[in-house]
Amino acid sequence: MTVRRPLALASASLALLAGLLSAAPAAAEVKVGVAVPRTGPYVTVGEQVLRGVEAAAKDANARGGINGEPIVLDVQDDSCDSNQAVAVANHYVNSGVRLVVGHVCSNASLAASDVYAANGIVMITAASVAAKLTDRGLPTIFRVCGRDDDQAKLSAAILAERFRDRRIAILSDLSPASRTLAAATKDNLNRIGVNEAMSTAFQPTDADDAALADRLKAAGIDVVYYGGDAQEMGRLVRIAAERGFRPQWFGTSAIATPDFAKIAGPASNGVLMTFYLDPSRKPEAQGVVAAFKAQGIEADGSMIYGYAALQALVEAGNFARSTEPGPIAKALHGERFDLVLGPVGFDAKGDITAQGYVLYVWRDGNFTPAKSN
């Protein structure tokens, strides 16, 4: 005789089984925030950092993630805007994200870092160079790139060494980064005993760029140092060339993107620039560079630094055997790790111990290390 279970009982059993299955713990994963500009004038740098982070996450997950937990990225757009950066930081706090790669622009990192520090979140930036970011000594704030005060010292030293007897102009626009670098470079140059022929701030527009180029030409300026970004400096260099003014241009890490050469055109040839040591030339980075090339991607600009930022979090987490920010921050401060940048550590402020800035020259749409005099 066949015994048939009552339909209501069978349904109740299925509901119980479904409840037990839904109550089973989900596989552990570690969320990492990635805060980059995906809109606005710094999209190219943001894309470089993001591609580097994505590649590092893929490689790390293939080896077990962080402390055995797979990495899931939460990518947010801060548009390099301070207020939007704070909103992104608060999103991470409310979402339970405890590790963040970001931000790109220094003003965004400075604003967001206060939120991260107050909530014990580790933030590591691949591109923010403001000295103030780490000078505050916030224990969970790090960077894998250089500092703007170091960049200013190198720029001043190069100006003094190569162009001491030339008429030098130091320009800045209204952006905080440009003003800071121009002021620090001027200060360091003057301390060396070299005085610029002109120091001025301007509002970058087509009309103002043309007027400024004419003014610099009339003043007999031979060398122009400008801390503007790729768009602003690219336009100024191009407009100046169109007006017959071709000085020795000298830029900063803010123009280390192909956008500069695209905007400046042939006038970009010979432009000098300070930028971080090119990690794509280091033996430790060759596997990553080759992987990018296999996808038809050149690992330029800040891409390798984006990779290094996430790689540092992974290595520190695996060393500490934790995905929690406290142990990871402690490991970053106290240990050395083999990254794509080479064997590096982080000092008490959170600055990386890797080699800082070097001099590059633009030629045919790319920048390469400049030869020493």
TrEMBL record:
CDD domains: PBP1_ABC_LIVBP-like
UniProt keyword annotations, A-Z: Amino-acid transport, Signal, Transport
Entry annotated with the keyword ATP-binding: no
Coiled coil stretches, renumbered: none
GO BP: amino acid transport
InterPro entries xref list: Leu-bd (IPR028081), Leu_Ile_Val-bd (IPR000709), Peripla_BP_I (IPR028082)
Domain of life per record: Bacteria
Residue stretches making up the Leucine-binding protein domain: 29-365
UniProt signal peptide: 1-28
Family: Belongs to the leucine-binding protein family.
Protein name: Branched-chain amino acid transport system substrate-binding protein
Organism in which the protein naturally occurs: Methylorubrum thiocyanatum
Organism taxonomic ancestry: Bacteria, Pseudomonadati, Pseudomonadota, Alphaproteobacteria, Hyphomicrobiales
